[in-house]
From TrEMBL:
It comes from Streptomyces solicathayae. Coiled coil: none annotated. Residues 1-114 form the VOC domain. This is VOC family protein. SUPFAM superfamilies: Glyoxalase/Bleomycin resistance protein/Dihydroxybiphenyl dioxygenase.
């Protein structure tokens, strides 16, 4: 299983203020869908952090996003292990295929792949 990046997701109602604050540390806005904004390091594109009020299509806001090379294989492996699937595998309108799973610490993980 190849991991492409890991992004912490911060539930926030202060998105603009977060962009300004983390901008002082060198982060720049790399994505903004209105309900989720991702900041990234210009010198290290895999160094990212996202801020969201609520998830657009899921019942919970994930704590962490893990982008994998093969999201379908990850889904099958986690489902077969008995892990709790919190949000089903589905294609999203913004170009990702994803599902949510609960880790052993109770954290909700958004596992995704880009189409």
């Amino acid at each position: 299983m190849a991991v492409r990046r890991v992004v912490p997701n911060v539930q926030s109602s202060a998105v603009r203020e977060s962009r300004d604050f983390y901008g002082l540390l060198g982060f720049e806005e790399v994505m903004n869908h209105g309900w989720i904004m991702t900041l990234g390091s210009p010198s290290n594109p895999a160094a990212q952090i996202s801020f969201m009020a609520d998830d657009k299509t899921a019942p919970v806001t994930p704590d962490l996003s893990v982008e994998v090379e093969d999201v379908d294989a990850a889904y099958e492996a986690l489902r077969a292990s008995g892990a709790e699937i919190v949000h089903p595998l589905q294609d999203e309108e913004w170009g990702v295929r994803r599902f949510f799973v609960r880790d052993p610490n109770g954290r909700v993980i958004n596992v995704l792949g880009h189409r």
